[in-house]
Specification:
heterodimer; A: alpha/beta; eleven-stranded mixed beta sheet; 21 strands; 36% strand; globular; B: 251 residues; alpha/beta; six-stranded mixed beta sheet; 10 helices; 41% helix; binds adenosine-5'-triphosphate; binds magnesium ion
Amino acid sequence: MNAVMQAHQHYAAEFERVESVLAGAASPWLRELRRNALAVFVERGFPTARDEDWKYTRTAAIEKRAFSCVPAAAAPLNAQRLQQVLHTEFAAHRIVIVDGRYRPEWSQLDGLPAGVRVTALAAALSDESSGVRTALGKAVNIQRHPFAALNTAFIDDGVFIALQKGAVLDQPVQIVFVASAAQGGHATHPRVVVAADEHSRATLIERFVALDEAVYFTNAVTEVVLGDHASVELCRLQEESAKAFHISGVFVTQGRASRFTSHAISLGALLARDDIDVQLAAPGVECTLNGLYMAGGRQHADTHSRVDHLQPHGTSHEFYKGVLDGHGRGVFNGKVIVHPDAQKTDARQRNENLLLSDDAEADTKPELEIYADDVKCAHGATVGQLDADSVFYLRSRGMDEAAARSLLTYAFASEIIERVPVPAIRAYLQQAVLARLPGGPAIEEFL
Amino acid sequence: MLSIKNLKVNVDGKAILKGIDLEIQAGEVHAIMGPNGSGKSTLANVLAGREGYEVVDGTVTYQGQNLLELAPELRARSGVFLAFQYPVEIPGVSNVYLLKAAVNAVRKHRGLDELDAMDFLALVREKMKLVKMDEQFLYRAVNEGFSGGEKKRNEILQMALLEPALGILDETDSGLDIDALKIVSDGVNALRSKDRALVLVTHYQRLLDYVVPDRVHVLAHGRIVKSGDRGLALELEQKGYGWIETQAAAL
Ligand SMILES: Nc1ncnc2c1ncn2[C@@H]1O[C@H](COP(=O)(O)OP(=O)(O)OP(=O)(O)O)[C@@H](O)[C@H]1O
Ligand SMILES: [Mg+2]
């Protein structure tokens, strides 16, 4: 028997072991959903080198480690560390998931406006009246995404956000996924389900943080269904442990004249793979996808976006930047499909990569498939180094080389950070980027 | 202040400067003229420390030290300033940031306290008046979208803030309209002092009407082929470079 079969068997056996204790295990529909997803995953298997979508990203290291589910008993936490990483200043509302499980004592869900419900997913799954059933899995394509299938098989806890018609979240909601030391050697499959009914509005923050430099596997899925004229802005900030494996999928379906904006910042993990998959399923939709990935050391950061223009008058703007240092590697693949009915589509995509070392690498590939004739599509991808003339210009004004290079790198990254709508997160990200640059401290004092 | 002896510089294996000798004292203004491609910017860049130039022979002594062994930032901090022929645009870095970082780097080197935000702003406002620049330029990205003339004024603003001992202006007058030329010239004149030396690389006599040089040099084919007083610039204006090049070739 080969290694691939063994890996599948491992997850199938894990499923056998934990199925009965997963949230809502008694619900036939959930059981069906999970078992079906597991079958899809086992059938499809871990991606291989032959998978075009996984050409640059090997998941063998995840297979090999055969991560198991986190034991049910909550391990003691380093409360002080946890308090530090929560960043309560980012948002008034907060829901905290530690090692894959909702922790009410760290969450803050008082004072949510009328028409807005934010609950732990496990609670929603156990409550037939929660309404999660109508939303769950609707935007996710598990056939195309093996890890989303795996996530679905192990659906347990996470967050369910329901915005009723016209509901407006005046303050952002922050979802913090915390990996404690207890997560070492384990996998979590957190799920976020957002149902934004017509004319509702929300800004959501998702953060992945670690209390410890443990080896673990986060396999997250976030799905967002936007009703007509709904507007959702999603800020994702990935700062997993430097030894972690992070795979995530964001799946979005947009209703008429709705607006979806995402800001994906990827800084942590040894291996990160983020898929974002948006269906512009109705006319007049606006979709904006921004992102920044930074990889140094031996880090690998892969972003795959897919935008399906299915209906006319849709706009999609993608802007991703990568900063690669050391032996770091960045991958960006942007697929845009303009379907036959999607006339008057305006699709733009830009990906820029900055290589700071000789051993850093970036692979970028725009993929446009256009089946409508009256459309505007533009894409551009670059891989380059810091401009030597600019470095010299700054040095000729007295700045040392490390500071000059760091300043230019910072300026490069800032173009994405500036678009983040929450000022406290912008400020935090500026610091986070500076902290990763050798000349960071020198330039910080003048910013 | 600056002593250049037999300076020979190659670029990509090709000899560009073929033995430059130049002595500049504090308080002096020297003009360097010469045909396109003769090596004027090469000389300016070598003095500022740009990479990609191979010094194959000669010495450059600045204030008693070997200038060529200093990193560009150390030259800047020790008072060497190059106003670029083509100032680069740096998106994402605000002008005010660059100015503040530059001023404080130089101050630190001189053993002075760094300026706080208030004092810095007061200083920069004063200097901006000198080159008639609007305050909005502080908050724009360095040179990004600046017109040709605005870029040149920004260079003079930087020079005014850094108060260098040796200012090298590479065609700061090129591309300026008549009013801007007057503004830039006034800015340069305001910086003339007995402690400061200025080198003006220019193609035009007009600048030298405003900023009267002590010496004028003609650089052709990598050599200084003629030096004189301001009368030489007037002569060049009338006769072009042909006669000097023939004269030099005959030597
Ligand atoms: N990086 C380089 N690679 C190849 N050749 C170069 C390089 N830099 C300068 N040169 C050559 O060196 C010569 C001198 O150039 P330089 O820019 O110093 O001339 P200049 O006197 O400043 O001319 P201009 O009046 O047009 O500004 C030119 O022939 C130029 O092509
Ligand atoms: Mg020149």
